[in-house]
Amino acid sequence: MTKEPLSPLEPPTNEPLHVMPPSEGCLGNIEPLESAGSRWARYLGLGALGCVGLVGLFRVPVLSVLLSSVALGLGIAAGVSLARGLRTAGDPDREGESVRGSAWCITILALPIAAALSVISMMVAMTMYGGKESPLPKGLFAFAGGQDAADLRDEAIQSMRSGDYSRAERCYRRLVSQQPGDIKLRANLAFVLTSANKHREAIAIYDALTREGEGTYDLFAYHARSLDALGRSDEAIVWNYRALALVPSLVDVRGDLARILVKQDRSYEALSLLASFDEQLESRGEQPYFQGKRMAIAATLPPPSEISPVGLKSTKLGGHYYSVALGQKGESIPFLIDTGATHTTMSKQVLELLGFTIPGNAKRVDMRTADGRTATGMQFVLPHLRLGPYSLTDVQVVVLDKCASLLGQTTLERFDLSTSRLEGLEVLTLKLRS
Fold first, then answer.
1. d(C-alpha 236, C-alpha 400), whole Å
2. CA distance 125 to 59
């Protein structure tokens, strides 16, 4: 007699029960029991995935992101565990698993921890991007990945000093985002951008600060540097002059300005700029700073002429205009342009640099100096004097001991003098009369 087929739900009692592995299930819906550890790993992974996106969106500090990930994972775990506990509360077949007890324990432990970590993470983010002081203790704030404004400033300054402009830029951008009204932070960001050759963005910040009425020597100097890098040399000259008008001792700015002037075919103006500064150093017994640069510029000057189409320009610095005379061996000698002085004066040392000595027919004259002293000098006529691009002949001068080099009316009367204002700067132009 043939046996009847057995139902898959009623295995034969006289044969061992065959347990089908999960992979052999015909419907594929039978899963192995999941360990608590793998559940927790999945919950924490879900939290991490959700929080890692904050880095790209808000650039939250890394440790703050980790804290947020743990907090979110714990919150998910607590919620799922509580839901399972409530769902199986009335199931007598699963009471032996103590699901309800474990769910409540996990919930009680996880939720406060998740809440605390979330609060810490939010406080860090608030401090980093809200421009407020950290409400956390400093040690806890640092552990959470936070960095207050003072730390950011220190890091930015150190990065600038070490030449790490990319890092300095990140620090200043973060500081400006916290305190957008801080003029100094915005200016320092622009300085970093100039140093990193991001000149267009830097110029936009300089222009905005200028419109707001800000004006410091470093703001002007960096502005000039960016303008020059973009080929806007005429504007760069103006801003460099403005920086020097505030702080005449800026040798880097003075040197950059001289370089741009030479590039713009204003070599005599560049020589005057450098020579006048060196003369002040020498009058104090110090060594001239720009002597080498002056020699290099003088060596490339065109020959003198009777007429210069552009004239000899001088920009007012320190309340004075200067011109430059060229010595016998190419030395550049600054002369202060003094429209109130009658005579052109110089010392014996300057006379020798020009290649002359006091002639025997020189006339002794008494003169009153600007400070009220009376001095005796020797008056005579120089055969020629090269003043900027001009070659002058029969120039009447007075030689005095320890005398400043001045261009007085005996020389200036040969020129047409005109003054103009260029972007707030006073410029004197000398053109030789026909």
1. 39
2. 9
| CA 270 and chain centroid, separation | 27
What is the percent of the chain where pLDDT is above 70?
Answer: 63
344-400 confidence digits (pLDDT tens): 999 999 999 999 999 989 999 988 766 667 888 999 999 999 888 888 999 999 999
Q: Coil, strand or helix: which one is 317? A: strand
Query: What DSSP element (H or E) covers 363?
Result: strand 363-368
Show Cβ contacts of residue 325 under 8 Å, excluding neighbours closer than 6 positions. Answer: 332, 333, 335, 354, 385, 386, 387, 388, 405
Q: Round to whole Å and give the CA distance between 278 and 292.
A: 11
Looking at domain 304-434, does it have CATH number 3.30.200.100? no
Q: Once rounded to an integer, what is the mean pLDDT over residues 312-336?
A: 85
The span from the CA of 303 to the CA of 300, in Å, is 9
Q: What is the pLDDT of residues 82-93, one digit of tens each?
A: 556 555 555 555
Q: Domain limits of the chain?
A: 37-89+98-143, 304-434
Whole-number Å distance between alpha carbons of 362 and 401: 15
Q: How many CB atoms lie within 10 A of CB 229?
A: 15
